[in-house]
């Protein structure tokens, strides 16, 4: 999609919410000006547009501000002729994404930082995260290559950055405690050209910098 000179994405390379938004924008071939944010040094321009101060944030040319990653993904899909299989069974996908964001993300944070959550042992936090994956993700992958069939879906894009973080906490434990179906799914998605294309490194954005264009070249999803 061309003529997106007015689109500005505030992003942070390693943020899983920003990764899911960048994957959707890139998959939909939507070109944006990417502004790399350092979370401890947020630019006033970001806070002016979106006082809550999280990334990703997408600014549209008409002044509209899209402040949540899932809304950016849905906007990207709606505003392009993206492969409609991404949103097949959309209500069920949104339900799983919501459940993931509400219940897996806190478990993942506890697993990543057990020293901040001493109510349980590190091992129990690990068990809880893996058990959630077993219950809600691995069961789906026993039947299909992806979460909603044998094709890429919005839910795959939305959830994979968080599972990647979970695997990175202790890769040996992840390999031991999860099924090969989940490991293959994770590898297929994170080793894809699409994923690699959204993980490029950019310098911290400052007002007046020349634009960095992102997402405009269509990538094969897998
Ligand atoms: N609900 C938001 C959550 C985004 C979010 O929490 N992003 C984190 C970075 S991964 C953030 O910006 N945190 C603000 C901070 O750490 O100051 C979304 O879906 O976009």
Gyration radius (Cα, Å) is 18 Å
- Tally the helices: what do you get? 9
Could you give the count of β-strands? 5
Order of H and E elements: EHEHEEHHHHHHHE
Taken as a percent bin, the fraction of beta residues is 5-15%
Q: Return the domain count.
A: 2
Choose one word for the global shape. Answer: globular
Give the CATH architecture of the largest domain. Up-down Bundle
Give the CATH topology of the largest domain: Glutathione S-transferase Yfyf (Class Pi), Chain A, domain 2
Please state the average pLDDT score: 94
Helix content: 40-55%
Q: Look at the structure and give the CATH class of the largest domain.
A: Mainly Alpha
The unreliable regions are none
N-C termini distance: 20 Å
Question: Which ligands does the model contain, each kind named once?
Answer: glutathione
Spatial strand sequence of the major β-sheet:
4-3-1-2-5
Structural class: alpha+beta
**Largest sheet at a glance?**
5 strands, mixed
